[in-house]
Specification:
The protein is an alpha+beta fold. The chain has helices spanning 3-42, 92-108, and strands at 46-52, 60-66, 69-78, 115-124, 133-141. It is globular.
Length: 154
């Protein structure tokens, strides 16, 4: 096999693997979001939106409300905790993107009254599991001070 043919074969195998793996990750992520939404409903939250895209580049997994609190939820799904807790994947870059998305959402909805919060919901398991482990980290992080919102009218 020539070098260029071997290179094309390797590229084709990588593309096939990326497509196969990406689809599996997407399926697991959507399953985790469904599990998290059902779990949050049982905890008394109302689902306001799923996979909300307030602008072109950002997405909020779930927007939920309970009482006067609007909660932006990032769902992290893992098959196991062998490599650590799922919440560890919510790094500074991800928090920045979530804050940007939440600020865009609030602008688009006219800054609804109440408090805003960011939670992370961990789902450990995979489709077909009877009882996946679900944990909610309330107030996982806050808006940085540079974000300013209009004061609520009394």
């Amino acid at each position: 096999m020539t070098g260029s043919a071997l290179g094309r074969l390797a590229a084709a195998v990588r593309a096939w693997w990326r497509e196969r793996l990406g689809r599996r990750e997407t399926d697991a992520g959507r399953w985790g979001e469904q599990v998290a939404a059902k779990w949050l409903k049982r905890q008394g939250y109302d689902i306001v939106g799923r996979r909300v895209r307030p602008n072109r580049r950002d997405e909020i997994d779930l927007v939920v409300r309970r009482g006067g609190q609007l909660v932006f939820v990032e769902v992290k799904t893992r098959r196991s905790e062998f490599f650590g807790r799922p919440v560890a994947a919510v790094d500074a870059r991800k928090r920045h993107a979530l804050c940007r998305a939440a600020a865009a959402y609030l602008r688009r909805t006219g800054y609804p009254r109440g408090c805003y919060r960011f939670d992370v919901v961990e789902v450990v398991g995979e489709p077909g599991d009877d009882e996946p482990v679900v944990r909610q980290i309330e107030g996982a992080f806050r808006f940085p001070p540079r974000y300013r919102f209009p004061a609520a009218n009394s």
